[in-house]
Design brief:
Helices cover 87% and strands 0% of the residues. By secondary structure, the chain is mainly alpha-helical. It is extended, with a radius of gyration of 23 Å.
Length: 189
């Protein structure tokens, strides 16, 4: 492997590890300030809906000769309206989204529990455990709702950032090691 190519590849993996470190830091800060992370997530979500609505409206106007013009206009208007509502009432949006997440955990857990008992496959124990965990998480979130909406979304987003960051760090460090190993193997020949 030419020296320039291996150096570029190694730098690229280093950048991945650095980005992973930034995500881990963001995840840890988000976990420490879960309420702030929840409101920030809701505001970002609202702005993304608003911007996406305007882009969709622009696209609908540009393709007004198509059969789907009115569908595009309606979807864009709904996105714009939802974006405005989420930006104006981020706490209410967080409450609604938390309720939705709790109900998803409850139904998902229930389906996993029943499904694992009916199917009785080789992964039955793991599926039962996952179903019980989902059910418990749904009960905990719903049992403390609407107060739980102040930290649940921020906690979930922060955990996602943390684990994505750890994955990028592992990929970056492992990739750099692989490049070094291949380079030393090729240099030894």
């Amino acid at each position: 492997m030419p020296k320039g190519r291996s150096a570029r590849l190694s730098r690229g993996f280093g950048v991945l590890a650095l980005l992973g470190g930034i995500l881990v830091l963001a995840g840890v800060v988000g976990l420490a300030y879960a309420g702030f992370a929840t409101l920030t997530t809701m505001l970002l979500f609202g702005w993304l809906l608003l911007i996406g609505g305007f882009v969709g409206l622009l696209h609908a106007v540009q393709s007004r000769a198509s059969n789907y013009f009115w569908l595009g206009v309606v979807v864009a208007a709904l996105n714009i309206a939802a974006g405005v509502v989420v930006i104006k009432m981020p706490v209410g949006a967080a409450e609604a989204l938390t309720m939705f997440a709790a109900l998803l955990f409850l139904t998902g857990g229930l389906f996993r529990l029943v499904g694992s008992l009916v199917v009785r496959g080789p992964q039955m124990a793991w599926t039962l455990l996952q179903g019980a965990f989902d059910l418990l998480l749904g009960i905990l979130v719903l049992g403390n709702w609407p107060h739980s909406s102040l930290y649940v979304i921020g906690t979930f987003i922060s955990l996602a950032l943390l684990f994505d960051g750890l994955g990028l760090i592992a990929l970056g460090v492992g990739g750099r090691r692989a490049v070094r190993s291949v380079k030393s193997e090729l240099d030894g020949q």
